[in-house]
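Please predict the structure of the following assembly.
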Amino acid sequence: MRPRDVRVCVLRIEGTNCEQEAYQAFADLGAQPEIVHLKQLTGAAPERMRRNLEDYHALMFPGGFSAGDYVRAGAVLAARVKSALSKNLVPFIESGKPVLGVCNGFQALVELGMLPGFGGPMAAAPEAALGTNDSGRFECRPTFLKNENKGKCAFTATIPHGGVIMCPSAHAEGKFILPIEQERELLKRLEDSDQIVFRYVNPEGKRAGHPWNPNGSLDDIAGICSAQGNVMGMMPHPERVFTRYTHPDWTRNFVGPRGDGMAIFESILEYVAHRF
Amino acid sequence: MVVAEVRIELKKGVADPEGANTRKALELLGFKGIEGVSTVRLFEIKFAERDTTKVKAQVEEMCKRLLANPVIQSYRIDIR
């Protein structure tokens, strides 16, 4: 398959954001993205608007404050997806198609039990949590992410191992938490199965705590993937830096032809084109 | 009418920055002797159903499917 044939579903419900940036990132790379409301996938829309999840090659849960972030961030979106779409979503994941969750989308994937995915593609109950930032505040600034993945993750193939990219963070609940009583074993399991994708670092690429880690996340984790590598969630927003003009330093010392976030979208398209 | 009160608390050992910041604010206002401040969420769910056993089972299911994340939260249901 050629990257231009890749159809991407950018999922929307009330309160999601940056769908347009995500759409534009995929479109600029020549793929065929579409912003699709959850109700279009669950049959709760007029017939001409209905869509089938299986007709897409990739799925993205964008950021935002879905359903007002009531109950817990991403929890309402997750519960709705789980009850109405899991029969389509589980085979989608099992077929190896990529699912990306950014910010609120990452929170939703964790609430769905899709990440870390210890118990299969969609665990019955959440296996982790994205808790309130240690500062107790909404943290919003450019963050530096080191690619820690050794090759399993389908979303970072175009970023060298150990390479650092800049993506903005903007969240109040981004602290990655594993069950306290099993924290060390589960963290080791994530390491051993190459599921850690990004860690927060300082501009020199060293782990340096707050403010470089905006939320107090366990082991400075900013993004993880499933054991198969085709589901990834990350708190920072790659779609907010897909052109060089949205990079915060574009008028100063930023020289890249594109924003750093584009690497994620390129990797998705390469993965799908290669695999399907 | 049966009312279910669902109390969602953070599990022991899970950081509670909102509680910690509230404590700090209270101390800045001059309140002394505070041992701790915890944030708790309370949902009050009203049912037309009068069978409390059925209500309890339904609220348990609600906690599992939406209201609590068992990694960081515990819940208690009171039916009245």
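Residues 3-275 of chain A form a domain with the Rossmann fold fold (CATH 3.40.50.880). The CA atoms of residues 21 and 42 of chain A lie 24 Å apart.
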